Amino acid sequence: MAMDIKIPVSGHNTNNHLPFLDEDAMTSDDPLGVPSQQSVKAYVDNEVAPKVEYAYGEIADLSTGASSWTIAPVAGTITRITLVMEAAVTVANAAVTFEIGGVAVTGGGITVVHGDSAIGATLSATPTAANTVTAGQAIEIITDGGSTTASKATVLLEITPSATVTTAWKKYVFGEIANISAAASSWAIAPVAGTITKIWTVIDGAITVGDAAITFELGGTAITGGAITIAYSGSAAGTIDSCVPTALNTVTQGQAIEIITDGGSTDAAKAVVMFEVTPSA
């Protein structure tokens, strides 16, 4: 039951009562003002909800027709795509497009013009449709190989979450495995102190002969529940796997996260790894 209660405060206003404020943005910043429940909720939802999240990808060579992959950290809409290149391309333009579930992202194409390209050049696109993703969904990055001269590129996808509040407590960090069929270690860095609550992988090609086992360690200690087996049977470019760690998964800010492959499979395949970290503070 709602009640209208006035609390006397000497000298604050003409009625000697606290003012009742209905301000979603809290713009008056009144030290004695009492906000409405609706205003408190609206303010918290707006401040706590993240404005955007990001997915990172890589193109090994803009001048080679190929696909690479990244992973959507949250459910939402891809609102901007930015690309930065490491070298100029020549002879002809390089076209980069993006697909979700085999469907091209409308307005998501980026053309690298050979005459204007240069080291560190940045290009962007603003998708307009077919740009909705689910959490953990694979996003395909496609190059047409139209240009000449090798040039690596980094891709940043800006995602506006479809949910509020809950996604605000998660942080995401990306790692890479150059070849899941070769026994080796690679590394990522924890962005905040907290707990690793989920791990995803996406591969850019099929593997054969045997499964690939991926494990993760913090300070030389294996993360409990942190193993991913990428099955060779049915594997293909864009295959997503995941796990949910249950213990020994606490990180400090800036701590190294080791990504370990056992080399159990055959055929080279790159993998992108995404860690979800729930902050401790």
Which terms summarize this structure?
single chain, 281 residues, mainly beta, five-stranded antiparallel sheet, 1 helix, 22 strands, globular
Major β-sheet profile: 5 strands, antiparallel
Please give the alpha-carbon distance between the first and last residues. Answer: 34 Å
Low-confidence blocks of residues: none
Based on CA atoms alone, the radius of gyration comes out at 24 Å
Strand content: 35-45%
Q: Helix fraction?
A: under 10%
Number of strands: 22
Shape: globular
SSE-based structural type: mainly beta
Mean pLDDT, nearest integer? 89
H/E element string?
A: EEHEEEEEEEEEEEEEEEEEEEE
Count up the helices. 1
Topology:
Elements: E1 20-21, E2 34-35, H1 37-48, E3 53-59, E4 66-71, E5 76-85, E6 94-100, E7 103-104, E8 110-112, E9 122-125, E10 132-133, E11 138-143, E12 153-161, E13 171-177, E14 184-189, E15 194-203, E16 212-218, E17 221-222, E18 228-230, E19 240-243, E20 250-251, E21 256-261, E22 271-279
TL;DR of this structure?
The chain has one helix at 37-48, and strands spanning 20-21, 34-35, 53-59, 66-71, 76-85, 94-100, 103-104, 110-112, 122-125, 132-133, 138-143, 153-161, 171-177, 184-189, 194-203, 212-218, 221-222, 228-230, 240-243, 250-251, 256-261, 271-279. It is mainly beta and 281 residues long.
Overview of this structure, please?
The protein has 281 residues and is mostly beta strands. A hairpin with a 2-residue loop joins β6 and β7. The relative contact order is 0.18. The strands form 5 sheets. Strands 3, 5, 9, 10 and 12 form a 5-stranded antiparallel β-sheet that branches. It is built from 1 helix and 22 strands.
